[in-house]
Every structure is written in structure tokens, then in C-alpha cells.
């Protein structure tokens, strides 16, 4: 188990290094950070000093290792746009994005798996057909349009739910939460649905097709031939086997939620990292973009690790060494 | 290649097309969208870019069927007095242009990389596929945003506005190539070891020619399917970028731009400025996706 | 003794886009308690389909369109799903072809045994586990007390088929439908599995329907044998009679294609042509295009199973009424 985790972490290191290299290249070579930071009036001495401060006179390898060292400590310099430490900016906005992502992911997983199982088991019922049509529309509808439609219906026409912002938040140290106030919870509903809907439809379609695949296998036929009840077959044997591929793809999809939050946060003016990122792209604020890229990469690597661990728990074939697996 | 296409579009395909009413309907919708977009300068009721004909007095007119609608402006007008229907038609033009170009771009890159990786094998293969894997880990919209952001930082603002359209095409195209590369590589690996390729090699036909004349025609079917499914994605990606304000320049508004602009008026009750472009976008993407789904099932039911 | 299983005029149909295919037509046989009936034929002859129809698990859209299946004298072909489910495993056990795919990879073999037994028998967890270990021992799994907690992938193919056999037997059914139980196994393992099946069937007095295309397995194991061709039974009778002196030209040809072990032959007799597709079964006797003894009546009328002395064969050669008509080609009768 420990060796397994360790090997997975080792595999993730090259990925993180590649991403770090890209981030660093953006930092060092895109645009001219020196003139951006100096502004209009500066002396040559100031310029030289800044180049020295930024370490731009050092060799590539030196600069890169300094960058990685700083990045590991969450140090990404100052935002060009806001002239504040990037880490601080991201730290302020992380709770908003994370709370939104957790809600969206829960909706997508719970509802998506349930609908997928239902449509897989009762292929021909009218409800299944309705779900499938709905999923096709869900995949074709861009998230921002879903957001706009929800705002139009529930905020503008019905006036039930707020259309922007987080509502009232409660501060716990550096973490701000919207879970504890009524207005905070109300503000979460529309963005969470918007963000989760796309992943929901994907998960549903995935679970459905895997379910259909598994129901065709010999071991399910054999389970029927042994006279097991439908409940045991569908939810014990079939669903558990469906989980193996579903975990991987669902895991990656949930990682996608963090990234898609950019769009949702823009629609709902949700004060999270995505909104910060899109403002930075618009203003070519490289340090924030680089830091955000690293953070997303970290999230994805983390999710991959969790996915591998879940695999490990679900599928006994992975638990033994490869040697024992194929003894015919 | 012509024969491969002819084989792909033989009577079976046509038969399965006619049998599926949803497919026929989406083909019609797609056709209407594409024709409306292509012919916009000739058939659009107004020219939304002709400042001379714009009249601020016409601003915020609701759709023609509403109480104080104006029959001149079927789907109403926006804050500048532009006809929404005409703006949609011109916008769809940009959306379609960017979508098609981006798909062509990613197809070319992906097919080339896939052929190379599959045919060369070894280190080149593992390196290229490792890159594809790493990129696939990240949502493509994020890649497109990053590419756009980097270009924005790298070139001065005036230059950027001029090349913005190409930047968007490049950004979306580059975010989608790994899918093509993977599929093509897989098929190439299968084809490469077949006897006819071996035979062609032995009689001294050049590697490039073998790839283009023998291997490529055999992988064209799946590529066609992925390209169709990707067109929907590319149009959506462009709309998303433009909605976020980092896509096409405001001087050439696409459907996404129109939705973003209209979004500001949602609360003052002028819903039509944003909803109609949205509906147009949905129709376009949904019909293309349905066609892609059908094509996938018709060409190869096992392909996922 | 009354038969444990009676199949009467069974007909299975598959509605398809191009019309309805008849996969089984007029199949009738019975199996006595403790008896092993071998069912042979080429692939597509309907052997496995017959087994699937008996356990009530025909692949949709396949359906029983006529005839009856009786288990201990009670009809089971028209039972509702839930009642049939109680019979499966409890009264009819099934063994499938490929042991690598028949076991659920995510559950231990013990758990699969226990859930099967507890579905049908009132056993506590502890009793069920004890019995599971007992069954694994009985089918010859060494160190069963430890192996009960192993996953299927930790067993070899032959051992997995032993597990499958224990799963089929663990609720002590009166009848086993074994569909090609040795086909997917190594030749060296096949004999062991057959020996095990034979021993267990005798010990437990379990009747068995053994579907296979391997005549060697049939000769070794079966008491009686049914030869199937194009969804019909061509000949049925005691295994010795069918192997030694088959009456139907098709079964005769099939038997002639078995390589004899006691002498060297240069050439094995085959049967010209191939079995018709279900969509193109000829009128009259389905075998008539390939038959060396064909005559006019074979092309028009379909033969029922006729007494031939030691066996019953669906062939007009054995109808006294046909004697007036001379076969077109007479090689030997």
C-alpha cells in the first residue's frame, strides 16, 4: 500500500515539473515583467536593481530552481494588476471556489450516479428516455448559458434566488464560509447547479453505458443462473463492477469542476479563484496565471492520487503483485 | 482517400440517416444555421455593422410579437439599436468560422502527431503521447484560456486586437489535438503491422508515402467522427472564451460576445438581447452534436 | 422413475429486423434423475440455446414461442421471473463455458458461495461459511479453509472452473445444465474437470445436461446423447448406440469425424458443406442439402423422431412408409 502510494507520487513529479516549467517560462519570458513592474518613470539604477531582485541576471537553471523553491512555499511574487502578493490573493478567494466546487461535485456525483444506474437498468422506460434527452441537452448547453437561463428564471422572473455574489459569509480565521448563513446557502444554489450540471450529465451517461456493459458480462449471467435476487445482482454485482471505470473518469471530471468554475464564477460574479484568473487573463497578469496553473495541476495530481487509492480499494486484482494475477 | 470517403458514405450510411428522424431534423437545423451564417451579408434584414443605418431611437425594441415590438426587427434590438436577428446571423458567421478553423487546425496537428507517433514508435512515440496525456489531464477550456492569456501578455495590445481571431483559433485548436493524435496513433499501430504495409516497405515505397496512401485512409473514419463531435465543442469553446471577454475582438462579435453584451441587460428586462443568441448557439451546437453522435454510431457502433 | 426434466416440442424464436428466426424447433427430450444427457452438434445448432431456455435465461429478444418445459412434472417455461429465480440455483444449477469470466472479479469465492447458499437455504453466516469451505474441498481445491477468502483472479483457470462447479452445486439442485464446461480449458485440465463432474453427479444423484461439441467428453461421461442440427434434434439414444452405430446420416458423419485412438488413419471422414444459417433453413429435413441419402420426401416433409431400434432418429430412412421410395443415391443403408 505504502509502496503503491509512493510510486504514484513519484509518477506525479514529472508532470508537476513540466507544469512548473511552463509556469516559469510564462513568468520569465512572456512580456517584460521588468517594465511592467517599473511603470512609466524609472532610472537605470532602479531597473538594474529590479533585475537583480527578480534574479533575472542569473542562469536559467538557477532561476528555475529558485522559482520551484518559491513555488513550493506558495511564493509567486506580486500580481502585476493588483500589486499584492499572489499567494494572498489566491488564499482569499480559495474558500469561495472550494465551497462551490464541493457542492457542485456532490450534486453531480449523487444525482449523476443515481440517474445513470436507473437508465442502465430500465433502458426502455419513458423516464430513462427523458433522462437521456436531458443529458444530451446538458452536454450541448454551455455552462454560461445554463447560468444565464437560471438567473433569468429564478432571479429575474421569479425573484427567488440571488443572481450574484456569495451572500453573507462567516469568517473562520482565513477561511470564509457561506454554509452557515441563510443568504449564503441561497446564493450557492444556482452557481452549484450551473457548475454541476455538465459533469452530472457526463457521469450519468458514463454510469449508464458501463452498467449496460457490465450487465452483459458472463458473471452477471452466472449470478442470475445462481438465482440471486435482482437487488443483489444490480446493486451488489453490477454496480460495484461499474464503479471501477466510473471512478477514474468521474475523478477527472470532478477535477474539471475546479477549472469550469472560471465560467460559472464569471456568470454569477462569484468571488473565487476562477474570477481572479479570468481577470488576470484579460489583464495579462502573468504571476497570477502561473500560480493558478500550478495550483490546478496540484489539484489534478491530488485527485489522480485519490482515484488510484479508490481503485485499490474497489478492485482486488490491483492489490496483489502482478505475478500472482495470471496463473492459468 | 477519395475511395475511402466513398466507402464511408455508401448506401448503408444513407439508409441509417433516413431511418433516424432526429438525425434528419438536426441535419436540417444545422443546414439552416450554416446557410444563415454564410449568407448573412445577403439575406440578413439589416447590417448591424453599418453605423449609418443604426438609430439609437430603435434601441431596446422587444421582439416583433411583443406589445411594443416593431415588425422591422423580428427578434428586437439591442442597446445600440442593432437588429438582434441580423447580429445573430453575423455572429454565427464568426462562431462557425472560428469553430471550423479550430477543428481543421487540431485535426491537422493531431493526425500528423498520431501518424508520426504510431509509425515511428519508440522514444518519439512515448514522448509525444506523454505530452498528449499530460495535456488531456487538464480541461481544454483551461488550456485555451492559458494560451490566450500568454499571447495577450506576449504581444502589444494593438497587435493583439488584429490577430485576436487567429489567437482564438489557435488556442481552441491546440486544446483539442490530443484526442485526434491518440485515435490515429492507435489505428496506425494496428495498420503498421499489417502485411500490406510491410510489403510496401519491402518494395521500397517511402515511409511518408506509405503513411499517406496506406495508413491514413484507414484511420480517416474515426477522425471524421471526432472532428464532427469536436466542431460542437469548438463552437462552444469559442462562445465561452468570448463570453468571458477574452475571445474574439468586440469589433467582430460572435454569438458568445452577443450573449455577454446582452447579459448586462438581463436585469433591466431586455432578455431577448441575450436569450436569442443563446438559443441560436444551442441550436447550432446541439444539431452538430446529434449529427456527430449519429455518425459515430453509424460508422462504428463500438467506437466510444 | 418419472423424469426430472421433460422438454416437449420446444420452440424458440428471435424476432429480428428481417423477420422472425426460429432458433429451436420441435425439440423434445427428457432426463431421468441421476442421468447424464450429452447434447452435441456444431456451433449454432442450438445446444446452448436449449440450455438457456431451460434455466429461463434466453438472451432477449429470444423467447420461448411454443412447447413446454417441465421440471419434476411442473411447468417452468411460463413462470413469472421471481418464481423462476427461486428455481435457478436451487433446483437447476448452471455451469458456463469460460471460468475466467463467469466469476465476479470483485468478490471472494467464499462470498459468492455464501450468497448463493443463503439465497436459497436458511443458513446462518457461520454455517454458510463452513459449507462454502466444505464445497471447495469437495471440488478439490487444496487448503480450502484459506482459499475461501481468495479472489477469483488468484486461482488458475482449472481451479476457477472447480469453483464454478461448486457454485452450481452448492444449493444442491437436482439438475445441472453444463454448457461447454471444458471447452475453454487446457486439454490436460479437461479430463480432471470431467472426472470431477461425473463423480459429483453420481454422488449427489444429480441429473446433468452436458452441452459440448466434444464427442470424446460425451463418450466418457454421458448415459444418453442427443445430436442437434439446425435447431432440431437429429438423433437421440444411449451413448453406446449413437457412437457405435448412429442411424441418422448426420450423426453417422459426426461420429466418423472422431479420430479413433486405437489405430492410425490417413484421412478423417468429414461432412460436405456447412450447417444452414437460421434464416435459410431448407424445407423438409434441414440436413437434406448435405445428405448422401437424400430422396424426394426429404425435400418436402420434415421428419419427426422415429424409432430405429436402439435410438430414435429424425430421418425418413426409418419410416416404413418411405421404403417404397428409393433413395436417389444408395451408398449403404
TrEMBL record, chain A:
GO BP: transmembrane transport
Family matches, as InterPro entries: BPD_transp_1_N, MetI-like, MetI-like_sf
Pfam families, per the entry: BPD_transp_1, BPD_transp_1_N
Transmembrane segments: 12-30, 98-118, 130-160, 180-203, 243-270, 290-314
Domain of life of the native organism: Bacteria
Protein name: ABC transporter permease
Keywords assigned by UniProt, alphabetized: Cell membrane, Membrane, Transmembrane, Transmembrane helix, Transport
Start and end residues of each ABC transmembrane type-1 domain: 94-311
Family membership: Belongs to the binding-protein-dependent transport system permease family.
This protein's GO CC annotations: plasma membrane
Annotated source species: Dankookia rubra
Membrane-topology descriptor: Multi-pass membrane protein
Main location: membrane
Subcellular location: Cell membrane
CDD domains the record matches: TM_PBP2
UniProtKB/TrEMBL annotation, chain B:
Biological process terms in GO annotation: transmembrane transport
InterPro entries: BP-dependent_transpt_permease (IPR050366), MetI-like (IPR000515), MetI-like_sf (IPR035906), OppC_N (IPR025966)
Gene3D superfamilies noted in UniProt: MetI-like (1.10.3720.10)
Bilayer disposition of the protein: Multi-pass membrane protein
Membrane-spanning ranges: 22-44, 96-121, 127-151, 163-181, 223-246, 271-295
Annotated SUPFAM superfamilies: MetI-like
PROSITE patterns the UniProt entry points to: ABC_TM1
Primary localization: membrane
Presence of keyword Transmembrane helix: yes
Assigned GO CC terms: plasma membrane
Family: Belongs to the binding-protein-dependent transport system permease family.
Name the UniProt record assigns to this protein: ABC transporter permease
Source lineage: Bacteria, Pseudomonadati, Pseudomonadota, Alphaproteobacteria, Acetobacterales
From TrEMBL, chain C:
SUPFAM superfamilies: P-loop containing nucleoside triphosphate hydrolases
Biological process, per Gene Ontology: peptide transport; transmembrane transport
Compartments where found: Cell inner membrane
Superkingdom of origin organism: Bacteria
Entries under InterPro entries matching the protein: AAA+_ATPase, ABC_Ni/Peptide_Import, ABC_transporter-like_ATP-bd, ABC_transporter-like_CS, Oligopep_ABC_C, P-loop_NTPase
Cellular-component GO terms for this entry: plasma membrane
Keyword set includes Cell membrane: yes
Pfam families, per database record: ABC_tran, oligo_HPY
Keywords (A to Z) from UniProt: ATP-binding, Cell membrane, Membrane, Nucleotide-binding, Transport
Membrane association type: Peripheral membrane protein
Chief place where the protein resides: membrane
MF terms (GO), sorted A to Z: ATP binding; ATP hydrolysis activity
Domain ABC transporter, chain residue ranges per copy: 5-255
Gene3D superfamilies: P-loop containing nucleotide triphosphate hydrolases
Family: Belongs to the ABC transporter superfamily.
Name of the protein described by the UniProt record: ABC transporter ATP-binding protein
Native organism taxonomy: Bacteria, Pseudomonadati, Pseudomonadota, Alphaproteobacteria, Acetobacterales
Amino acid at each position: 500500500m505504502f509502496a503503491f502510494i509512493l510510486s504514484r507520487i513519484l509518477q506525479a513529479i514529472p508532470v508537476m515539473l513540466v507544469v512548473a516549467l511552463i509556469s516559469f517560462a510564462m513568468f520569465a519570458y512572456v512580456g517584460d515583467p521588468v517594465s511592467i513592474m517599473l511603470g512609466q518613470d524609472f532610472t537605470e539604477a532602479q531597473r538594474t536593481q529590479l533585475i537583480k531582485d527578480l534574479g533575472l541576471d542569473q542562469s536559467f537553471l538557477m532561476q528555475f530552481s529558485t522559482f520551484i523553491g518559491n513555488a513550493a512555499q506558495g511564493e509567486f511574487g506580486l500580481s502585476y494588476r493588483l500589486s499584492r502578493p499572489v499567494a494572498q490573493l489566491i488564499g482569499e478567494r480559495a474558500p469561495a471556489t472550494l465551497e462551490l466546487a464541493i457542492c457542485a461535485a456532490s450534486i453531480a456525483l449523487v444525482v449523476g450516479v443515481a440517474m445513470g444506474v436507473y437508465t442502465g437498468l430500465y433502458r426502455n422506460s419513458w423516464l430513462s428516455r427523458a433522462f437521456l434527452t436531458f443529458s444530451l441537452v446538458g452536454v450541448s448547453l454551455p455552462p454560461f448559458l445554463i447560468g444565464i437561463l437560471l438567473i433569468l428564471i429564478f432571479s429575474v422572473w421569479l425573484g427567488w434566488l440571488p443572481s450574484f455574489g456569495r451572500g453573507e459569509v462567516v469568517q473562520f480565521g482565513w477561511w470564509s464560509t457561506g454554509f452557515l448563513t441563510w443568504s449564503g446557502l441561497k446564493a450557492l444554489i444556482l452557481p452549484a447547479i450551473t457548475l454541476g450540471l455538465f459533469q452530472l450529465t457526463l457521469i450519468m451517461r458514463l454510469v449508464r453505458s458501463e452498467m449496460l456493459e457490465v450487465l452483459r458480462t458472463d458473471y452477471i449471467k452466472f449470478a442470475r443462473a445462481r438465482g440471486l435476487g435482482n437487488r443483489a445482482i444490480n446493486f451488489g454485482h453490477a454496480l460495484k463492477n461499474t464503479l471501477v471505470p466510473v471512478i477514474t473518469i468521474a475523478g477527472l471530471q470532478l477535477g474539471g469542476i475546479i477549472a469550469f468554475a472560471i465560467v460559472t464564477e464569471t456568470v454569477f460574479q462569484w468571488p473565487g479563484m476562477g474570477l481572479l484568473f479570468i481577470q488576470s487573463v484579460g489583464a495579462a497578469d502573468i504571476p497570477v496565471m502561473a500560480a493558478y496553473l500550478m495550483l490546478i495541476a496540484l489539484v489534478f495530481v491530488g485527485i489522480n492520487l485519490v482515484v488510484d487509492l479508490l481503485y485499490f480499494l474497489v478492485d482486488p486484482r490491483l492489490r496483489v503483485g502482478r505475478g500472482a494475477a495470471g496463473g492459468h | 482517400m477519395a475511395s475511402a470517403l466513398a466507402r464511408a458514405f455508401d448506401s448503408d450510411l444513407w439508409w441509417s440517416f433516413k431511418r433516424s428522424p432526429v438525425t434528419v431534423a438536426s441535419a436540417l437545423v444545422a443546414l439552416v444555421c450554416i446557410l444563415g451564417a454564410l449568407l448573412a451579408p445577403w439575406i440578413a434584414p439589416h447590417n448591424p455593422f453599418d453605423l449609418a443605418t443604426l438609430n439609437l431611437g430603435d434601441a431596446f425594441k422587444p421582439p416583433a410579437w411583443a406589445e411594443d415590438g416593431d415588425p422591422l426587427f423580428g427578434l428586437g434590438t439591442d442597446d445600440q439599436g442593432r437588429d438582434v436577428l441580423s447580429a445573430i446571423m453575423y455572429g454565427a458567421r464568426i462562431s462557425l468560422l472560428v469553430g471550423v478553423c479550430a477543428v481543421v487546425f487540431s485535426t491537422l496537428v493531431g493526425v500528423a502527431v498520431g501518424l508520426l507517433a504510431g509509425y515511428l514508435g519508440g522514444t518519439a512515440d512515448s514522448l509525444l503521447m506523454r505530452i498528449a496525456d499530460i495535456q488531456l489531464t487538464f480541461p481544454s477550456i483551461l488550456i485555451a484560456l492559458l494560451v490566450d492569456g500568454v499571447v495577450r501578455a506576449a504581444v502589444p495590445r494593438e497587435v493583439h486586437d488584429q490577430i485576436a481571431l487567429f489567437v482564438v483559433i489557435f488556442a481552441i485548436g491546440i486544446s483539442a489535438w490530443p484526442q485526434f493524435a491518440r485515435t490515429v496513433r492507435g489505428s496506425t499501430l494496428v495498420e503498421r503491422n499489417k502485411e500490406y504495409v510491410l510489403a510496401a516497405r519491402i518494395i521500397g515505397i517511402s515511409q511518408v508515402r506509405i503513411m499517406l496512401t496506406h495508413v491514413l485512409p484507414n484511420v480517416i473514419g474515426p477522425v471524421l467522427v471526432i472532428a464532427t463531435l469536436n466542431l460542437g465543442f469548438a463552437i462552444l469553446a469559442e462562445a465561452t472564451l468570448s463570453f468571458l471577454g477574452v475571445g474574439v475582438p468586440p469589433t467582430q462579435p460572435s454569438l458568445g460576445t452577443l450573449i455577454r453584451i446582452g447579459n448586462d441587460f438581463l436585469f433591466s428586462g431586455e432578455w431577448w438581447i441575450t436569450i436569442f443568441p443563446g438559443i441560436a448557439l444551442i441550436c447550432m451546437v446541439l444539431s452538430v452534436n446529434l449529427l456527430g453522435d449519429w455518425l459515430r454510431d453509424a460508422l462504428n457502433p463500438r467506437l466510444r | 422413475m418419472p423424469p426430472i426434466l421433460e422438454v416437449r416440442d420446444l420452440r424458440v424464436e428471435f424476432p429480428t429486423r428481417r423477420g422472425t428466426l426460429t432458433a429451436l424447433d420441435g425439440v423434445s427430450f427428457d432426463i431421468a434423475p441421476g442421468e447424464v444427457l450429452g447434447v452435441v452438434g456444431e456451433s449454432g445448432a442450438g445446444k446452448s440455446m436449449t440450455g438457456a431456455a431451460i434455466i429461463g435465461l434466453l438472451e432477449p429478444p429470444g423467447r420461448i414461442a411454443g412447447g413446454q418445459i417441465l421440471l419434476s412434472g411442473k411447468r417452468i417455461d411460463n413462470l413469472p421471473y421471481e418464481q423462476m429465480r427461486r428455481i435457478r440455483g436451487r433446483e437447476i444449477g448452471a455451469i458456463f463455458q469460460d471460468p475466467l469470466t463467469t466469476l465476479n472479479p470483485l468478490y471472494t469465492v467464499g462470498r459468492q458461495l455464501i450468497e448463493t447458499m443463503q439465497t436459497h437455504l436458511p443458513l446462518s453466516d457461520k454455517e454458510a461459511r463452513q459449507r462454502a469451505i466444505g464445497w471447495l474441498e469437495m471440488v478439490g481445491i487444496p487448503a480450502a479453509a484459506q482459499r475461501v477468502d481468495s479472489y477469483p483472479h488468484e486461482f488458475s483457470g482449472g481451479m476457477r472452473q472447480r469453483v464454478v462447479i461448486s457454485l452450481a452445486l452448492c444449493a444442491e439442485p437436482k439438475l445441472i445444465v453444463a454448457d461447454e464446461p471444458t471447452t475453454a480449458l487446457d486439454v490436460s485440465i479437461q479430463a480432471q474437470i470431467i472426472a470431477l463432474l461425473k463423480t459429483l453427479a453420481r454422488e449427489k444423484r444429480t441429473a446433468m445436461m452436458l452441452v459440448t461439441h466434444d464427442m470424446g467428453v460425451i463418450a466418457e461421461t454421458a448415459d444418453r446423447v442427443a445430436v442437434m442440427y439446425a435447431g432440431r434434434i437429429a438423433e437421440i439414444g444411449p451413448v453406446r448406440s449413437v457412437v457405435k452405430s448412429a442411424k441418422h446420416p448426420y450423426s453417422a458423419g459426426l461420429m466418423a469425424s472422431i479420430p479413433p485412438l486405437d489405430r492410425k488413419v490417413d484421412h478423417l471422414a468429414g461432412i460436405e458443406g456447412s450447417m444452414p444459417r437460421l434464416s435459410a433453413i431448407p424445407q423438409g429435413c434441414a440436413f437434406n442439402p448435405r445428405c448422401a441419402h437424400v430422396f424426394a420426401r426429404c425435400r418436402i416433409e420434415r421428419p419427426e423422431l422415429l424409432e430405429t431400434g436402439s435410438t430414435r432418429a429424425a430421418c425418413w430412412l426409418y419410416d416404413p412408409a418411405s421404403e417404397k421410395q428409393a433413395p436417389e443415391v444408395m451408398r449403404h443403408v
